[in-house]
Here is the input.
Amino acid sequence: MPSPSTPSKMFQKSLVTPVAAMAVLAGLGYVIDVTANQYVQLIFLYICVNTILALSLNLVNGFTGQFSIGHAGFMAVGAYVSAWLSMHAHPMLLSGQLEFLNYILYAAAGGTFAALAGWFVGLPSLRLRGDYLAIVTLGFGEIIRVILLNTEAVGGARGMFGIPSPGDFMTKFLLATFWVMITFLTLWRLVHSVHGRAFLSVREDEIAAQAMGIDTTKVKVRAFVISSFFAGVAGSIFAHAAQYLNPSTFTFTKSVDAIIMVVLGGLGSLTGSVFAAIIVTILPEFVLRPLQEYTGVDLRMVIYSLALILFMIARPAGIFGTRELPDLFKRKAQ
Here is the structure.
């Protein structure tokens, strides 16, 4: 019989990997803080933003099998709500050295409003399938952008200036990586639970899932709301990293970037989304921008697009396909 201490030992064991990962990321942040300039530091913050964005969209497009192309709209909701709270809301109970923890609450608030927007959009639209759902989500993203463009309370077309920062780069990086870990662990546990199997059943055969008694609309709305929440969190991190917001940032192109990261990493692979977010963020800036400075011709988008096309021809299922990073090591070991 298992000893009474088995559950606590299992809990402690489950914390080893996240704690080790945070320690490694903290060390990486310290090295970047000491050695890199502000431009490089900002790119690493954008990597965290894109990682959360790709992970959240993968829950809908990869694991549930829906096709949403309006993810930038939910990101915009989270960004503007979080930025407005940090600029106008009464300070939270925490102050002094702990004031930066308020930004975790701002991100959670932005994610909550984005989740409410996801529920509002998803409840009627997720009864649709395929192209119809894509059109609805695209329309929602454009509605949000136009509303922000014409709302003077959040700066309108001028955008929001002077958004507060939680501190120096190290503080922002730790907050960003904290939310990356929360997003990854939450989605990992979710997709490996009973709810995750319901998501997969909807993806594989929605009619068969309905025949087995699964409320497919409820399952899809649940995935959509969770995905929207983390998209809002990504928007919050982006707002406080850039310290400026403009509606033109959250266009259809931003949603396409998120889709590229999901497809490139592999539909249904969380670790694939992480790797793809890193590649898509770094490639245009650290690899192709120096080429532009050397040649004097801006060929970044041409080479970037060509590289994506060639990669998808060679790996149509993405970098990882539906597998995760541990699965690849197990396969090599066999």
Notes: The radius of gyration is 20 Å. The chain has 13 helices and no strands.
